[in-house]
Structure formats: structure tokens, C-alpha cells
Amino acid sequence: MSTKLEKIAMKPVNIALGFGAGAIAGMVFKKVWKLTSGQDDAPDAHDEERGWGEIIAAAAIQGLIFSVVRTAVARSGAIATKRLTGTWPD
């Protein structure tokens, strides 16, 4: 079990990891979208020229990528914390 001091010390690290995960996921999504659709930009919900299927597909792919990257980064951070402190973070 982590101490209160360890939890406080890990806050900035977790925030930085979150930003990094978001940046990585954004880059991966752009590349995946370009490979799958041949378009540089993914549609958003207010894009009048794009159909429902394309918009929902883009959202599903983006959500999947963000979730996987966020989970991988969080798990890696937990493993690093365990190695550094000897305790698994809460």
C-alpha cells in the first residue's frame, strides 16, 4: 500500500504520463485514419459532408486507440512505481 507522501509525489508524474499518452494516441490515430481511409483529417460530428457511418467509425477507432494507449501507459507507470518504491500504486 502506498503512503500518502508517495501518492502526492506521483501526482505530477501521472499528469505528465496522461498528457504523453494523449499525444501518442493522437499521433497513432492520425496515422491509422490516414491508412484506413486515405484522408488526412478524420470527420467530426458536425461535418455536414460526411455520413453517419464514417463519423461513427472514426469515433470508434479513436476511442479504441486512446483507451489502449492510456491503459498501456498507466500500466507501465504502475510497474515503474513498483520498481522504484517497492509498492504497487493504488
TrEMBL record:
Transmembrane segments: 12-32, 52-73
Keywords from the UniProt entry: Membrane, Transmembrane, Transmembrane helix
One Pfam family named in its UniProt record: DUF4235
Domain of life: Bacteria
Protein name, UniProt field: Membrane protein
Species this chain originates from: Mangrovihabitans endophyticus
